[in-house]
User: Fold this.
Amino acid sequence: MRVTLSFEESEGTDLCIMVDLLRASATITAALDSFRCIIPVRDAERAREYLSMDYPVAGERGGETLPGFIANSPPEIRKHGGDCLVLTTSNGTRILESVKSTALIGCLNNVRAVAAAARDMADEVEVIMAGVNGEFAIEDFLCAGEIIRVIGGEIDEYSEAAVLAVQDRRLVDDAIRRSRSARRLEKLGFGGDVEYCLRRNITDNVPVYRDGKIMKLL
Assistant:
């Protein structure tokens, strides 16, 4: 198996894993406990149209919950349920709309499960870091490193750097807590979300994005 790591844009391998640790990946993974599917939408105005069709809609921009929307928050999303959830976020949903291959969604909550699924599904796997508004985000790099370490196989130098960076869990968690994304969420009152996103292997949910929808991989 060959594993590569990229930032923002997919190189079009057999399979990719999108990582947006704070918080889209964890929100999507948690939502699949109570929703059958998730419709990721890049544009906030388009997402707002779903409100008039009585869809539950979650989303944020810059970490702030959009008016009338459910928060892009794993603990908050677990309070809701139904058929399909519409989700729009600053980074994660934007990345999903650009991928050309089948995409899984990975986070620390489902590291083992998403890594095992990737090993079973493809010979080439690309891990895509969503970043923040086109800029590198350390939390996505570190989360990618944990996923790549579990997948194993042949890795490129970028992937190797990510794996080397996650040898000490305490240092990893401290770096994520000190990240600009985490500090912004703390200021907005979502400090608990950061702690939730740091929890490893609390679910076997593996979200898979195909044909414009995210569903649980069975």
